[in-house]
Amino acid sequence: MTAILTANRINKKYNPISATLELATCSLTLERGKTYIIKGKSGSGKTTLLNILGGMDKPSSGTVFYEGKSFYELSDQEQSRIRNEEFGFVFQSYNLIPELTAYENIKLPVFFNPRKKVKSNAIFDVAAEMGIGALLQRKTYQLSGGEQQRVAIARALMMSPAIIFADEPTGSLDTATSRMIADLLVRTVRRRGTTLVIVTHEEHLIDADHIEITIDSGKVSASEDTHVLFGI
């Protein structure tokens, strides 16, 4: 496996004056095609870490390298391009537009990235992967929570991103649906060779092989052989 994203001595401060840490200094490497689970209680700093890795929140100090380039030193335009084309995002609240159909929601990344060529049948293909091919003409408010999250995952996959960042993707679902959606997400990205980073507070969400990163009050620890260094 090869590294796709590396964070070098990153941290995040609540208050730069008092230097109170939201995320303690840590370094980690994400490898292509692997699944990572960031676990911790509410407010522990796990979403902060995800946002820094996903290019949405600049660290107070340290550097994030994506494909060997210092992400936060790139132009705003290039950062935006990477987030839109090479990163995919899945959220707890789905972030779908209720007035649009499932088809139109999935197609949104294509609308915002007209330069990138996408196969004409790509929407139908990704919908089939998610098992929602028969639901494409329904408005999202007509769908169940599990169906809406499948639409959100399909949308995140539309541009064939290198990394999927999922922030509590099953947090609004019941236990049985959570496991089903998590398993579907893991199987799909593994088949595509995509790196997956999931934030969750749920125990035993995924049975498949994964690397576990735990955050407790901003301090990062990890399972063995994860290329994670903390407190450095």
Automatic annotation (TrEMBL):
<dbReference type="InterPro" id="IPR017911">
    <property type="entry name" value="MacB-like_ATP-bd"/>
</dbReference>
<comment type="similarity">
    <text>Belongs to the ABC transporter superfamily.</text>
</comment>
<protein>
    <submittedName>
        <fullName>ABC transporter ATP-binding protein</fullName>
    </submittedName>
</protein>
<keyword id="KW-0547">Nucleotide-binding</keyword>
<dbReference type="Pfam" id="PF00005">
    <property type="entry name" value="ABC_tran"/>
</dbReference>
<dbReference type="InterPro" id="IPR003439">
    <property type="entry name" value="ABC_transporter-like_ATP-bd"/>
</dbReference>
<dbReference type="InterPro" id="IPR003593">
    <property type="entry name" value="AAA+_ATPase"/>
</dbReference>
<dbReference type="InterPro" id="IPR027417">
    <property type="entry name" value="P-loop_NTPase"/>
</dbReference>
<dbReference type="GO" id="GO:0005524">
    <property type="term" value="F:ATP binding"/>
</dbReference>
<dbReference type="InterPro" id="IPR017871">
    <property type="entry name" value="ABC_transporter-like_CS"/>
</dbReference>
<keyword id="KW-0067">ATP-binding</keyword>
<keyword id="KW-0813">Transport</keyword>
<feature type="domain" description="ABC transporter">
    <location>
        <begin position="5"/>
        <end position="232"/>
    </location>
</feature>
